[in-house]
């Protein structure tokens, strides 16, 4: 139940030798139509990988026939030669499909600063094209993994149509979006402009609210393709709901598979004067290494929450702040509240509620604890 669950899509995932281990590392997702409508959301990092720059250009036409994705190398910070490699990859996919490179999206993930082994990658495209099938969604999801420990797929059924998705990401998870690649497909008949509107709204409240380590990637890409093969034009509100549910499902999977994490932390900011204030506060708390260490040690240190809130420009009065951790209001009116010994931090899921007492708006940002395992994994990533 992945990207090939909706009608009109085939996929494949193959081992081309891009990774140091014998594992799948090239994926291909093909839209057989009749529609080729597409939309995308990309990293806001000013340092963008060549595949991001290429695919942004492709999306200006609102049409995508196929997406080729590779792990084992980000093709970021590789200069003009790296962009030529992306172009050559798109040309190769176009050649095997008998189509135009201008409608081929390219996504890459892995180590920054190194050229891709193009002979292996292009051979991988041939192999993936030969294996394209309606059953290939899981293999494609497997091929885009880097430090992910599991494949990440999602599926929802609408009224006469389906939505499927896959994603990768386990580190550098910070807006916008996470160090992630995600492909979402639907067999509904939806024009590109509507896909763009819906995808941006969905990403804004799901992937964009995931912030495990404060590090923004150069390669973030979320693509939404519509084949129209179901012959159904969906209700706009229902369609937006289904797309958002798939994005939320995938974002949750990214969260629980985050590098080294032992806790999944939801930071719910309520009572904000504006939604932007709630998001700003949530992100500041999510990026507090002091708090993340405290949660890892199962210490309900609410002072670290307030100190992070105080670094923001959100509207609030310090003596009206309230904080609850796993249902216990241990801070009331900016001072000690209920007995902190009542807080149970043994479960994997931790909820921190921050009441700004300044208005009617709210937002939730998701993060994880900071562990020795995270440090170890990222201290040896390139070696």
Explain this structure:
This protein has 383 residues and is an alpha+beta fold. It contains 10 helices and 15 strands. Strands 13-12-11-14-10-15 form a 6-stranded mixed β-sheet. Helix 2 runs parallel beside helix 3 and helix 5 crosses helix 6. The longest helix is centred in the middle third of the chain and has 21 residues. It is globular, with a radius of gyration of 21 Å.
Quick rundown:
It is an enzyme of class 2 (transferase). It is found in: Cytoplasm. The protein is α+β, with helices and mostly antiparallel strands and 383 residues long.
Overall mean pLDDT? 93
Distance between the termini: 35 Å
What order do the strands of the largest sheet run in, or round the barrel if closed?
13-12-11-14-10-15
Query: Structural class, from secondary structure content?
Result: alpha+beta
The best one-word shape is: globular
Number of helical segments with 4 or more residues: 10
Profile the largest sheet. Answer: 6 strands, mixed
- Low-confidence parts: none
The Cα radius of gyration reads 21 Å
**Element order: H for helix, E for strand:** EEEHEHEHHEEEHEHEHHHEEEEEH
Total beta strands? 15
Strand fraction: 15-25%
Helix content: 25-40%
InterPro entries: Arg_biosynth_ArgJ (IPR002813), ArgJ-like_dom_sf (IPR016117), ArgJ_beta_C (IPR042195)
Keywords: Acyltransferase, Amino-acid biosynthesis, Arginine biosynthesis, Autocatalytic cleavage, Cytoplasm, Multifunctional enzyme, Transferase
Site (Cleavage): 178-179
Function: Catalyzes two activities which are involved in the cyclic version of arginine biosynthesis: the synthesis of N-acetylglutamate from glutamate and acetyl-CoA as the acetyl donor, and of ornithine by transacetylation between N(2)-acetylornithine and glutamate.
